[in-house]
Each structure stands twice: as C-alpha cells, then as structure tokens.
Amino acid sequence: MSYPKWDDIRNSIFVRTRYFPMIDEDVPSFMGLPLASSAADLRDADVVIIGAPYVAGWGEYAGVRKSEWIAGPKRVRQQSIRYASGYIQDFDIDVFEHLRVVDYGDAAIPLEANQKPTVDNILRAQEAVEAKVNEALDAGAIPIVIGQNSPCGSYAIAKPIAERTQGKVGVISLDTHWDATRYDRLTMDPRIGGSASWKHKMFQSHANISVPNLVEIGERGMLESKDTVREYLRAGAHFYPMWKVRTELGIEGLCRELRHAYDGTESVYVHFDMDVLGGAGPTGGDILGDLAEPIGMSDFEVIRTAFEIGKRGLTGMSFICIPPGSAVIYRVVVYTIAYLLAGLALSKAERKGAVP
User: Fold this and answer.
1) Are strands 87-88 and 93-94 parallel, antiparallel or unpaired?
2) Domains and CATH numbers, the chain
3) For an engineered disulfide with 69, which of 55, 137, 188, 300 has Cβ 3.0 to 4.6 Å away?
C-alpha cells in the first residue's frame, strides 16, 4: 500500500484552496488549528495536540520499516487537514466554537533515540514528551499525544498525570496486548517503560494509579501469559476482551463499563493503542505486520468509545501503534480525536445550557 505524497494531499480537492499553519514543509498543524510555539501560547487552551514520533528497536518494528511508524504523527496531521472546520454533522456541533484547541508541535525527541535506542537516549526522549505534557497540564489543558511507541506514547503521559494528582488516577486502555511484562525487552532496564512493559512500570511506580480503576479493552486470543492476566484480575482490573464485547456487551454495554475508571478518581488517563483494530477497521490487518490479531475492534467501536470518554471527561490521552501506510487509518485517528472533542464540547455546552 502506497501512502500519498504531501504535494498530492496539499493539492487534493478538499485542501488545495485553503491556508493553514505549517509545522514543517510537509507537516500542517492538526486540522489547521493555531500553532503554539511556547508554553505561554497554551494559556486558556482546553486541549493541546502533541506529536511524539518515537519507535523502539534497532531495525524494523514488528516487521514494518521503522520510518513508516515514525511518520505516524506527521501523517495524522496531513490527513487531518482534509477537514476545514470542527463542525461534526452527526451532532450538529462545531467543537471549536466550544473548545480552544492548539497544536504544540512535536516533542524534541533526540534523533539518536530512534537511531540508537540506548537507555540514556530513550530516557531523554521520554523526558522530552513529559516536558510538553507538563506544560499542557500546567495550563489546565488536556494533552493528546500522537505517538507510536512506549514509553514516549504511553508512560510519558501517565507519569506527569500521576505526579500532579493528589487522589486516585483511573485508566482506560484500548489494546491488543497487556504490555505488562516485568521488564522492557529492548533494554532489560527497570527504568524503561517499554513496548511490552509500560503498564507494569506505570502501576509499579505510581501508587495512586489504581488497578481497580483500570478499564482494559480489546485484548483477545492466546498471546498473553495467564499469570499476568490473572494477576490484574485478582487486583480488581475491569477487563473487556473482544469476545465479551461482541457476545455479551456490545458497544453500548462497553461504554457503560467506562464508569469504573471514574469511580472515586480525581484524574483519568486514556490510552489508545491502535493495533487494537487488528484489521477490523477500514483496511487489512497485514499493514500492522506482526501486531495484527483477529477479532479486532472496528473503527466505529474505537471512535464511539472516544466520544463517550469525551462526554465523561479526561485528564490526558495518548495514541501508539497507529497502523502504518494507510491514509484512511490515519483518518480514523483524526476522527477518534474529533469525536472525543465532540463529547467534551457537548458536555461543556450542556453545563452552560447551550446545547445546539
């Protein structure tokens, strides 16, 4: 599958007549939103978009060229520019009339972190993401980080949220894998919350991130250790494998179960690992390489879940493992963010008595 060149996107029927801010020569701001160049520009923002183009490993990742994964945040922005406003006809609401959303560019991830993933380089990359997330949180905004791999697209968002929350932190996680092994397989260093270990690192390092307030959605099949899954279930995690979603709950029932992340918590961290699609979205699973698994969530189920989370509220959000190479899959991420914003905007309008 061939991803289009930026010139082709820029000159397409939906884009060619419009002006929008540019982050780089082939990177527009997300949905043409204002660019924030410093923390001062985040003042009064409700939501802050942040890119985290980081991929772990020394060569290919899951059988796909690393360059394809790293391009994820850029390509999500490229596809987002198709949409000239925040008007979502499904709800007859323009989200940007109710929310101030800005694009804060990419975290300053060192080039060496993607080329030479030593422990020091990975920690520098994580710190770069944390810095931008902390600035967004300082401004009272919700950071939404478009990443590709851990820790930069997961633990680097959970950590600042936990550190500044006095009470409990709930977690909503969509994923194909639990990512809860004891050590990062790439480095075997306990300081790294890596691709398969970031969730263990999160709970191990932050006592206020509460396992009984974990809503884990999407895992299925035979990849996981029974000891790992059973440990989380014994600790009180709320687990919704796709089999249960499809045979018992449906999307309506699943959305009702999100309540567990909010029960007695002060903050809620939301994490969407987009390999949860597994080929059930608008394109084939093979673009995910070794990460594809059957019985994936559909694009609608992912987007609907995001909308319901937006209605309930959240403190921060992250994306990783965005299936590489397909323009329409990058649009799924755009929709996921936009419909989350719609949930936020509708809730805000309802509180003000201004529902359209």
Assistant:
1) antiparallel
2) 6-352 (3.40.800.10)
3) 55
